[in-house]
Amino acid sequence: MILQGGFNYYGIPLGVISLESLFPKPEGHIKYAASFDFPVLYRTVKGATVDRLIRERDPELLEPFIEAARELEREGVHAITGSCGFLALHQQQIADAVKVPVFMSSLLQVPLVSRMLGGGRKVGVVVANSEALSADHLRGAGIADEPLAIGGMQDQPQFADVILHGHRNDLDMDVFSSELCSVVERMLTDNPTVGAIVLECTDLSHFAPELHQRFGLPVFDLTSLTRMVAGAVHRTRA
Fold first, then answer.
1. Residues 207 and 214 sit within 8 Å (Cβ to Cβ)
2. Does residue 6 sit within a domain?
3. Is 9 inside a domain boundary?
4. Per residue in 21-48, pLDDT tens?
5. What is the CA radius of gyration of the chain?
């Protein structure tokens, strides 16, 4: 048997292009490596903050993101994702730059989830900042005319202070849970036909089981998408 060479690392299904941030990454977060039962390789884009990507939409970040994807591909990963759902804006450019599958946002699941639901039911999408979410982000994720209900975390004090603006690095997880649940509850009250939830922001993934139990709906996030892709690009069982 001949083993093919050419890569520095082997047996790593997933590479992650990471923003630069120092707040906690609890279990379920894409940057909490032990969230997965397979290896993950990270590349941090220096200076790529949440604020620059989401609020500023800084176009100068695209080239460093592309180079990080190429570095991960050269290292031997089988697929590439990111650490912020707003990278949907650059989904196509990054996918075009490499030869391995790329899924830069949890929002890519929205068309699939929408087609799972019966007619007239909406997909509830919770994002880090609904005011910054644009038609370009939705198009980048392949979202067209799917019926959506969108909730944003930008008005939640701790989330905005720590995650969106980076003013401090510690999180009270009880406060975090309360803030997220209040956003979801309001979204569902305003949109009673929501049949499933998609979490755009990987910082929310830790609470996916809690949301599922509390609201009784399927919850999709970047972690669920990552596990699905890893199972496809590094398949070991029938």
1. no
2. no
3. no
4. 999 999 999 999 999 999 999 999 999 9
5. 17
